Amino acid sequence: MKPDLHAEVNKNSAFLDRELSQLMFNRRVLAQAENKSIPLLERLRYLCIASSNLDEFFEVRVASLLAAGAADGSLAAHPALVATLSRISNECHLLVAHQYEILNNEVLPELAANGVHLVRHNERNEAQRAWVKEYFDNEVRPLLTPIGLDPAHPFPQVVNKSLNFIVSLTGKDAFGRGTAIAIVKAPRVLPRVIRLPDHLSKNGGISFCLLSSVIHAHISDLFAGREVIGYSQFRVTRDSDLWVDEDEVKNLRQALKGELLGRQFGASVRLEVAMNCPPELSQFLLDQFGLHQSRLYAVNGPVNLVRLNEIMDHVDNPALRFTPFFPGFAQKPGSQDIFSALRKNDILLHHPFQSFQTVIDFIRSAALDPAVVAIKQTIYRTGMNSDLMEALIVAARAGKEVTVIVELKARFDEEANINWADKLEQAGAQVVYGVVGLKTHAKVALVIRREEGKLRYYAHLGTGNYHPTTTKFYTDFGLLTCHAGLAQEVNEVFIHLTSLTKPHRLNHLWLAPFALQNEIIKAIRNEARIARAGRPGRIIVKINALVDESVIRALYAASKDGVKIDLIVRGACTLKPGVPGLSENIKVRSIIGRFLEHSRIYYFRNDLAHDTYLASADWMSRNLFRRIEVAFPILDKALKRRVLAEGLNPYLKDNMNAWELEPDGHYQRRKARGKQTSFSAQQHLMETLGTPNAHLGE
């Protein structure tokens, strides 16, 4: 199914539609769920990822568009915005229908053929129905609180993305009144996927049922003396962006704590119901949530596909999963002192193919080393459990100067970051929250060590977060260095963030929002100048998103001057490649594989200087102007060659997981042709950088 939406948008524009481009990324993720060469449980996981991505798209992008329309009155006053929302709605409805087609026609039947059964009510045998009835009576019903709607029982508050049921009733209630509609909230403490006892599963397989199916099967039991004539599960998605007036609040952390409670009840943006929901009930819900009919999604299955992730926790069948991967080590644990190693050479880390443990060891060693006098680190995402944060707490308690820049407004990680900020302060660390109005998205850490009577700086700079879990699934680069120029400039960035003074001139680092966009455009224009002089101009960039129009215009101009440009853009890309007279020298591809591509690499040939930068920033206006971001150069020639050999060249060669962007905004899957050998960049890196010995892995 190839939608023609892009062909209708911006026919005469130099840019593709951002929202549709972002939704095209979800189509590429869904293609993984259809790929029969991928193990079945992993295909189910891709379905869940696509559903989660779409949730966030509504919570953030659609919510922001609706809020923009509401800010000046009504949407009707913004015809362009109405047209954008209409295009989004059309594409999202197609995407959702496709998700459930894959689930019902491919993934679930094939899982059943492999002994993993998701059993609906009408598919259960008598023994299974009896067990489900007992489970409902003992575990579910005691926790349910049906609410019959009347003036004393108004429509209840419904939490963002929670499972609920609407029920239509006949007859009169116990007080002789004709209350016709009831709402039942599914308790959040109950599992959404329930495993049946093994003896009830046929042929030695595993059987599951959904909580929604259990409640559906016995919903009549909740309304004695009344007849249930219609019902449906439903879920509402709400605006989940947090907002505080940072110019007004005195304590950002306390203000955000209050906002977190309200996030669950933000403005409604989408309603999901079961496909067989009676029209009068879906309309009743739309009216309650103030939603237009276009934001109704009637689905053929559970309203929350993300919950199916829970199946994977119960199925222990290696044949249905990716083969386990064990990362290699840039420096084997305990092989030598990390600071001694860095005085000899910089260390380049390529996650998840190489272990993140080296970074943990770096901070942990600094926390325990009596020669270390100070540690500074930025935190954007780190998770609820973190060895890195624990090491910083140890260092602070040991009396070292520990400074942590915690980004409290890292979307969906606010609560974890607030908790760590509390713990760090209690341990004696200096905690600050970056710069008002800007998110601190840079990934940098600094260790200051006293050596031979002088202070020496050691730094870690990365493209990804200090999150021990995501480092196993996201591709990212990190650099450990004691290069005096680089490390001292990292310290300047920390001084800038804590003191709010203007940073000194930086000779190595490109810092947003001050210089990053200018430096990127300057480097692009330099390649154009070289090409105009008759020498080869070459740019290769790997990022997650490309939507900044100034940067795109610079790339177009460089293309016209003859610069050969390859862009590896995982997600949204509004640049039109391959357009004669505009971008014929630009190619764009997206890689969707086992790991989430997350590294940001900027390469400029620059007359064989091979300028190579790693960065925390994508090429989006928010990264370049509304965040603190750092791009840092790879100065060591051998490490430059590694970045090219691992981070760029394999991805340009990939013909298994690569999708190529066409000028109209559609993507075509790249496949091996003729006698070409099939090649996957991620598989190649797993084989060359990983360790074959499981006992050496994490």
TrEMBL record:
Binding sites annotated in the UniProt record for ATP: 53, 474, 570, 598
GO terms, molecular function: ATP binding; metal ion binding; polyphosphate kinase activity
Domain Polyphosphate kinase N-terminal: 15-119
Keywords in alphabetical order: ATP-binding, Kinase, Magnesium, Metal-binding, Nucleotide-binding, Phosphoprotein, Transferase
Active site residues according to the UniProt entry: 441
Catalytic activity: [phosphate](n) + ATP = [phosphate](n+1) + ADP
Residues covered by the Polyphosphate kinase middle domain: 128-310
Listed cofactors: Mg(2+)
One biological process term in Gene Ontology: polyphosphate biosynthetic process
Pfam family, one: PP_kinase_C
E.C. numbers: 2.7.4.1
Residue ranges of every copy of the Polyphosphate kinase C-terminal domain listed in the record: 337-501, 509-682
UniProt modification remark: An intermediate of this reaction is the autophosphorylated ppk in which a phosphate is covalently linked to a histidine residue through a N-P bond.
GO cellular component: polyphosphate kinase complex
InterPro entries xref list: PP_kinase, PP_kinase_C_1, PP_kinase_middle, PP_kinase_middle_dom_sf, PPK_C_dom2, PPK_N_dom, PPK_N_dom_sf
The organism's place on the tree of life at top rank: Bacteria
EC category name: transferase
Entries under Gene3D superfamilies matching the protein: Endonuclease Chain A, Polyphosphate kinase middle domain, Polyphosphate kinase N-terminal domain
Annotated residues for binding of Mg(2+): 381, 411
Function: Catalyzes the reversible transfer of the terminal phosphate of ATP to form a long-chain polyphosphate (polyP).
Stated family: Belongs to the polyphosphate kinase 1 (PPK1) family.
HAMAP family documented for this protein: Polyphosphate_kinase
Name listed for the protein in its UniProt record: Polyphosphate kinase
